[in-house]
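Hey,
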Amino acid sequence: MVFKKRTRVDLARKILLEHISPIERRERVPIKDAWDKVLAERIVSAIDVPDHRRAAMDGYAVRAEATTGASPTNPVLLREGVDCIRVHTGSPVPDEMNAVVMIEDTIPAEGGEIAESSGIVEIRSAVHPNKHVSTVGEDVCHGDTVFECGHHLRGCDIAMLGMIGISHVQVYARPRVAIIPTGSELVPMQSEPESETNKIRETNGIMVGLYVEKWGGIPVYKDIVIDDPDLIEKAIRTSADCDAIILCGGTSVGARDYVPGAIESLGSLLVHGVGLSPGKPAALGMIDMAGKTVNETEAMPVLSLPGYPVACLVALFEFGCPAISKLARMPLMPDRLMRARLGAKIASKIGYLTYTRVQVDGGVAHPVMTSGAGILSSVTGSNGFVVIREALEGLDEDDEVDVIWIE
């Protein structure tokens, strides 16, 4: 397989991202549907939280000065309902009280001169003003900026929106990503094995689509396109209602690999051939869509991924994830890593960023397969990748490595 030019992975990714603009479409949604979306407005609180003084502990509301000198050996006796009032976590603190003594630091006592009218409480710890009291606006004050535009909403953020009385928010719409499988050898995943001979079930599409969804996009599944340049171009043109296109297969330099040429004929082929193993045939481009209105520009990113499933997955990680994240305005999350020791030597080729499948057991990363871009079971039988940088010829047994978990 010979390419006129092989681009470093980091440079190829940089070139692609420089051509991508985040989408501007916005939508108003209930806060329960805003989780994992990106705010398209600034959120300012119209209320104080809390809007009243409240107890932060179970105990007794008191005037702090009345507890001066209190200790387990020298308790202060207060009249319940007069000098102290029983409160529970979250309940209002009476205006005349300015502190709360925890229930653990008190002992209700019977008897005494006033026992018939009210109980006596032993206060066994001194408190200062506002001790165990949540003050008005302690959490959020009226007029505070709670979230800026562009904030990625997490579960805790949704709870905060509800706390300040917001039921709907404006968020950026998720990018629609067309997924187009190509190849005359493919049949739909649901096909019966006896109905098609010498064919391959198409599964790259569902794999890509699920990761697109994970990274903040909406997968738009398209039908299989046979190896025909005109049909491939037509499938790309009819995806103008999307924000990005990912094609699977037909991206190498063989006689039936028409996808890079289709991208070039419809727009700009930015990169074809990358220093990635597996994943070398990946192609990246921009398609000019005249009359396109779903984005700021008339161009959309197009990723052409290898048809071999492992190569498809690795190229998707390197280029699909950052591209979709930028379109969606989502923060690019760091890989989940585990430090491990290599259980065997791994060979790699200088000039290629190499993904090796490993199974981690007891802190040892055992290589599963170092080649075989079409062997999907080598990934499903692994729980991580060890990535070897371009400048290295491999790694030795017992080397300390970072394992990227496959999630």
